[in-house]
Amino acid sequence: MIKVLVPVKRVIDYNVKVRVKADQSGVDLANVKMSMNPFDEIGVEEAVRLREKGKASEVIAVSIGPAQVSETLRTALAMGADRGILVKTDATVEPLAVAKILKAICEAEKPGLVICGKQAIDDDSNQTGQMLAALLGWPQATFAHKLELAEEKAQVEREIDGGLQTVEISLPAVVTTDLRLNEPRYASLPNIMKAKKKPIDEKTPADFGVDVTPRLRVLKVSEPEKRKAGVKVKTVAELLDKLKNEAGVI
Amino acid sequence: MTSLVIAEHDNTTLKETTAKTVTAAIALGQPVHVLVAGQSCAGVAEAAAKLAGVEKVRVADDARYAKIVAETMETLILSLAEGYDALLAPATTNGKNVMPRIAAKLDVPQISEIIAVEGPDTFRRPIYAGNAIETLQAAPGKKVITVRTTTFKAAGEGGSAAIESVAAAPDPGLSKFVGEELSKSERPELTAARIVISGGRGMQSGENFHMLEKIADRLHAAVGASRAAVDAGFVPNDYQVGQTGKVVAPDLYIAVGISGAIQHLAGMKDSKVIAAINKDEEAPIFQIADYGLVADLFKAVPEMDEELAKLGY
Ligand SMILES: Cc1cc2nc3c(=O)[nH]c(=O)nc-3n(C[C@H](O)[C@H](O)[C@H](O)COP(=O)(O)OP(=O)(O)OC[C@H]3O[C@@H](n4cnc5c(N)ncnc54)[C@H](O)[C@@H]3O)c2cc1C
Q1: Whose CA is nearest to atom 48 of ligand 1?
Q2: Contacts of B98 in chain A (CB under 8 A)
């Protein structure tokens, strides 16, 4: 049976209204609620279900970032992951460096499947899973809608621009999650308690020989152009009149 | 050096996203080539050759590219990469699928979903669902870029690029295409439509989306949806507009029964004109709508259909 590796990222909670710092150096992360990237939750859920169905032997959660990412790992453990690996760094780690660290972990742990979120909702890059697959020379199935695991291969239905596509990939492989793959569970209180006793192995990027120095220079982070509220119309007829005669769009 | 644009097509038509990506590539200030990988795709190559500003079209016409999987595309692009210092693709599900593999193999970061080219190595891209815009400078070396096509105009016609065939690259044999279930519609594509009408959870059922389809047919519009409407199974996944769905910027976007969560706004707030119909006057969608109608959609939408008919649409 295969092991499943699930990388999890700590990001600003999806409900938080993001604010750009006045000095344009980034967004304000002080005192805002942080959570596990929602797509990674879907990844953890999928991995735990595979183990529950007897298709995976172990679920290993990995998180890269400052000491607080241990909270994100504990969430994954409370959802059912068996153990965690924390790769500690205070640096901003770009997707390519994340992929390199994950590659080294894959070489050591030899999982049959890595399930990543399709994108992190902070930098919206949508890169890490694909980069990891390429670095390992593995196949990938991104934007997974449905995953079926067989001996040494998987069939994955993918959400694509035109609808759905099914691909067959050999294992080991990388799968990235889309929204409809599953609905992640909430961790129960007993499971949160149990998670506290599950092991977390602490590492640093240097342990894997990965240089995480950013390759892209962020010159500034600015506010997007703001739209302002327009007018309220009273009737459908008035709406159509405005669209036709004022805005000229119909 | 030169930039290479990876064409998006279905073996018969070249997608407009390619022409828009060409515009982004031209802004880098170097000659632009286009790669067409497909099977029996000569017509696509000819269309690409007509795009103004394209110097050369390279065609890999082979059975293994009839349906593209990331792994075969990777070996093909890498076989050509040496001659280019920028590789660009539209930020479609295809582009997003393939390009990070190329970046990783070239050991360079990918710059995702650029919305502006500020200089040969400086780009702007949205982060945090478009709530912040990052200006990035790439290090010297090859650049791998995906392009948010809603912010670039399509390159016009009038070019006459040379067409040259390139050899297929080895298929690593790691994956294979099994099948697809594509949404069929006579309506324009969501990302290319001039008018989009989208429904949310307020629509209550897939049946009720027919009301929107009727309006769409009158206005030659595409139909979209919020995540909630897709999750509830009212409409297929490819209708989803938003941070993690499709990004659209039509002349007119009509949001019906959609509250206006930031994740939804991320996909439509660059529309030229936004109209919203929602029964809750406090709904956040009204904060960005040019025209807001506080009404029950089950009354307003049928009425809109009648009024449009009266106006001769
Ligand atoms: C990781 C992640 C990614 C996401 N990505 C996306 C995305 O890409 N796109 C997206 O859309 N969302 C996305 N979401 C979801 C987003 O946060 C919202 O939950 C979603 O957009 C809400 O959809 P809605 O507006 O249809 O539903 P609701 O928020 O439930 O709003 C329904 C609206 O309909 C109105 N209404 C109800 N009945 C009527 C009626 N009879 N007449 C008139 N109005 C009526 C209500 O007043 C309400 O405003 C994402 C969320 C997460 C966590």
Answers
A1: B259
A2: 130
- Per the DSSP assignment, residues forming a β-bridge with A169 are A154, B175
pLDDT band at A228 (very low <50, low <70, confident <90, very high): confident
A130 φ/ψ angles, rounded to the nearest 5 degrees: -65, -40
What is the DSSP track for B211-251? HHHHHHHHHT-EEEE-HHHHHTTSS-GGGBBSTTSB----S
Nearest to B142 by CA among B124, B120, B175, B169: B120
Does the pTM surpass 0.95? The reply is: yes
Query: What are the pLDDT tens digits along chain B (313 aa)?
Result: 899 999 999 999 999 999 999 999 999 999 999 999 999 999 999 999 999 999 999 999 999 999 999 999 999 999 999 999 999 999 999 999 999 999 999 999 999 999 999 999 999 999 999 999 999 999 999 999 999 999 999 999 999 999 999 999 999 999 999 999 999 889 999 999 999 999 999 999 999 999 999 999 999 999 999 999 999 999 999 999 999 999 999 999 999 999 999 999 999 999 999 999 999 999 999 999 999 999 999 999 999 999 999 999 9
| Residues in chain A closer than 8 A to B298 (CB atoms) | none
Q: In this structure, what token pair is assigned to residue B261?
A: 């969560």
Chain A interface disruption, residue of B67, B72, B110, most A CBs within 10 A:
B110
Closest CA to B250 of B238, B241, B237: B241
Single-letter code of the amino acid located at B249: A
Interface list for B 8-37 with A (CB within 8 A): none
**Contact call for A124 and B243, based on CB within 8 A:** yes
Q: Residues of B with CB below 8 A from A18's CB?
A: 128-129, 131-132
Please give the Cα distance from A52 to A80 (Å, whole number): 9
DSSP B161-222: -EEEE-PPPPP--SEEEEEEEEPP-SSPPTTT-SEEEEE-GGG-SSTTHHHHHHHHHHHT-E
Length of chain A: 250
Our measurement of the distance from residue A4's CA atom to the centroid of its chain's CA atoms, rounded to an integer in Å, reads: 15
Cβ–ligand 1 contact at B258 (below 6 Å)? yes
- What pLDDT is stored for residue B1 in this prediction? 86
Half-sphere exposure of B199 (CA within 13 A, CB side): 29
Annotate B76-141 with DSSP letters as a single string.
HHHHHGGGEEEEEEESSHHHHHHHHHHHHHHT--EEEEE-EEEETTEEEEEEGGGTEEEEEEEPSS
Give bridge partners of residue B273 from the DSSP assignment: B252
pLDDT of res. B195: 98
Atom of ligand 1 nearest to the CA of B280: 47
- Is the ipTM higher than 0.95? The answer is yes
Burial call B282-312: b when 16+ CB within 10 Å, e when fewer: ebbbbbbbbbbbbbebeebbebbbebbeeee
Q: How far apart are the CA of B95 and the centre of ligand 1, in A?
A: 27
CA A142, CA B164: separation in Å to the nearest integer?
A: 31
pLDDT at A126: 98
Other CB atoms within 10 Å distance of the CB of residue B201: 16
Whether B150 has its CB under 8 Å from any CB of chain A: the answer is no
